[in-house]
Write a sequence for this structure.
């Protein structure tokens, strides 16, 4: 029943299939997402399948036509059918070789090369048979007739298909999953169809099966390539996500490093400048920073006979001693809210009440700080081989503070208040706190002072001062 249907409709079936193969040939030609060698192999496969069906139909159509056109068409068509059958095997071998090119099996590569050798031999015998009638001849009615050598014609494709089946089986696990069964069917089904065709003459089972499998192979090859592209796309997304994660981590690390660096910079600035001034300088580095304070208190200290003492010491010893003592002053200033201004040689300068509010208690804080400094000097002398005495002078009043310079800048204070504080230190007595009248007026109710004395102050004349 099936055989009768195929006999009756095989020309129409061929027409439909050659149309499909022709369209697929065009699609393959314009497809860009298939690797070049695979695209060439699939293109040749479908082109050969198209031509195989075209010439197979012509061979049936012109069979028995004794006209000149019929004579030529029957011979050209039958030759082309045999040739295109071999061309399909050649194209399939190209495609298979591309799929297994990374295989380490030497036997696989040898089998593929033997296939090409069989194909060359088969083409040579096909051409020879056109002149000798070895494969087939034509009777007086221009009808195709098999010759005794026809069995040889089937032997070559048989060996080729068996070799290709061996390659597929040996590379089965490494082949794309979507193509494994399809590749096997491509070789097995035409082989089965060829066996049937030996017994059912007049049916193009082998040719239609080969063309049909070319169509199926194209479909699965495109599907496998789309999945490969999807996997590549997914891999690309994973790489981008990984890169994003690494970039975020790097940014976080750099941000943390920058934060640490900023904190170090800020800490360094705070060691040089008052906190408010440091923040203003950071925010506006090009702005001139200057402030007026109505009632600040300034302290100067100086080591008695330091020049004479330092002459008996090495430079390293001098610096070490000063550093130890002034570090004690710095720690106390930090604890008691006193702003260290600077050190000049053996002199130490500090201020309090650096605020726009004149009622700030800065004078009282400075007296307590000065008393603490005297305690620090006594403690220092208990453990130091060199004994120091200091003079302390304090004055309160208005002054101006600001940052000087663009490089190696320094926070400093200016005004008559500063000058008088310096004079209080220079006219004072060792290990005593010498204050001006303005400081005395702000602190007299908190501390006990001696009787006021008249002191000649350079640039100011006689001034009334007090010792704590």
């Amino acid at each position: 029943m099936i055989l009768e249907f195929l006999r009756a409709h095989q020309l129409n079936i061929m027409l439909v299939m050659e149309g499909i193969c022709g369209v697929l040939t065009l699609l393959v030609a314009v497809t860009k997402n298939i690797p070049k060698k695979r695209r060439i192999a699939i293109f040749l496969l479908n082109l050969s399948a198209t031509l195989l069906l075209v010439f197979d139909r012509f061979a049936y159509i012109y069979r028995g036509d004794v006209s000149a056109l019929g004579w030529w068409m029957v011979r050209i068509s039958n030759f082309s059918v045999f040739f295109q059958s071999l061309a399909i095997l050649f194209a399939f071998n190209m495609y298979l070789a591309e799929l297994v090119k990374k295989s380490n099996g030497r036997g696989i590569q040898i089998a593929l090369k033997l296939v090409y050798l069989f194909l060359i031999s088969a083409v040579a015998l096909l051409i020879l048979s056109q002149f000798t009638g070895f494969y087939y001849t034509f009777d007086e009615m221009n009808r195709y007739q098999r010759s005794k050598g026809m069995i040889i014609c089937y032997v070559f494709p048989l060996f080729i298909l068996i070799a290709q089946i061996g390659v597929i089986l040996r590379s089965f696990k490494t082949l794309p999953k979507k193509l494994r069964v399809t590749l096997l069917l491509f070789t097995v089904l035409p082989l089965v169809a060829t066996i049937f065709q030996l017994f059912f003459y007049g049916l193009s089972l082998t040719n239609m099966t080969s063309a049909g499998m070319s169509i199926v192979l194209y479909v699965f090859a495109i599907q496998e390539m789309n999945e490969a592209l999807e996997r590549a796309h997914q891999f690309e997304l994973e790489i981008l996500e990984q890169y994003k994660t690494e970039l975020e981590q790097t940014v976080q690390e750099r941000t943390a490093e920058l934060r640490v660096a900023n904190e170090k910079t800020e800490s360094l600035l705070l060691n040089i400048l008052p906190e408010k001034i440091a923040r203003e300088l950071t925010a506006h580095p090009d702005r001139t920073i200057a402030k007026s304070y109505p009632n600040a208190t300034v302290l100067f200290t100086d080591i008695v006979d330091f020049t004479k003492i330092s002459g008996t010491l090495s430079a390293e010893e001098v610096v070490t001693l000063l550093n130890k003592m002034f570090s004690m002053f710095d720690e106390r200033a930090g604890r008691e809210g006193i702003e260290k201004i600077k050190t000049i040689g053996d002199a130490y300068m500090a201020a309090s009440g650096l605020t726009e509010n004149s009622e700030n208690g800065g004078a009282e804080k400075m007296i307590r700080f000065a008393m603490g400094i005297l305690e620090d000097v006594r403690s220092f002398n208990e453990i130091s081989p060199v004994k120091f005495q200091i003079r302390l002078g304090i004055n309160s009043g208005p002054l101006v503070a600001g940052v000087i310079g663009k490089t190696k800048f320094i926070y400093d204070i200016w005004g008559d208040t500063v000058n008088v504080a310096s004079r209080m230190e220079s006219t004072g007595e060792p290990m005593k706190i010498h204050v001006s009248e303005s400081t005395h007026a702000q602190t007299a109710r908190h501390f006990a002072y001696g009787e006021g004395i008249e002191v000649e102050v350079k640039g100011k004349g006689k001034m009334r001062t007090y010792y704590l």
